[in-house]
Write a structure and sequence with these properties.
With about 160 residues, the protein is an alpha/beta fold. It has seven helices and seven strands. A hairpin with a 2-residue loop joins strand 6 and strand 7. The chain is globular and about 40 Å long.
């Protein structure tokens, strides 16, 4: 019975292609206005997030927050939804791992997308070891602070600076 479910399960790449109603632009919800003020928010499509991640060249980095800001500028909104952006960045990373397993060499470089404070996303495929290896091979230094791992001086290597 379990194999029938697995057989019909969508691939990560198919999931990225979903969400036909996105991107969507709305007024910033009331609960968010105290922090962000009035204006508009874009909820991006997964495809847009994947494309933004693909544009990060070797040796450079981006944060999920930075992708949200970039998409807000593209759509002419006040802010981008960072929660949705983070979810779709994770989906793009999983799709890239599927692509690599399928023999594709030109995959989304998900290891270059960090959390807002430069922290590695340990939920990305390959976990800490693979993320560190990929980042260090591109010239970055990964440091441990407590239980978390960060790219040292990540701000200096962000795209769009």
């Amino acid at each position: 019975m379990g194999s029938a479910i697995a057989k019909n399960a969508k691939s990560w790449r198919e999931r990225l292609a979903g969400y036909p109603r996105l991107p969507e632009i709305k007024q910033i919800p009331e609960r968010m206005r105290q922090r962000h003020g009035p204006g508009t928010i874009v909820t991006p499509s997964p495809r847009e997030v994947d494309e933004a991640m693909k544009r990060v060249p070797e040796g450079r980095l981006v944060t999920v927050f930075g992708i949200g800001q970039q998409l807000a500028r593209q759509h002419g909104t006040t802010i981008g939804c960072t929660v949705t952006t983070a979810i779709f960045a994770s989906m793009a990373a999983q799709a890239a791992a599927e692509d690599r397993q399928a023999g594709h060499s030109n995959i989304t470089p998900y290891w270059r997308t960090l959390k807002a404070d430069g922290e590695l996303n340990l939920k990305y495929p390959g976990g800490l070891d693979e993320l560190m290896q990929r980042l260090e091979s591109e010239g970055h230094t990964v440091v441990q602070r407590g239980r978390r791992f960060f790219v040292e001086d990540f701000e200096k290597k962000l795209i769009g600076r």
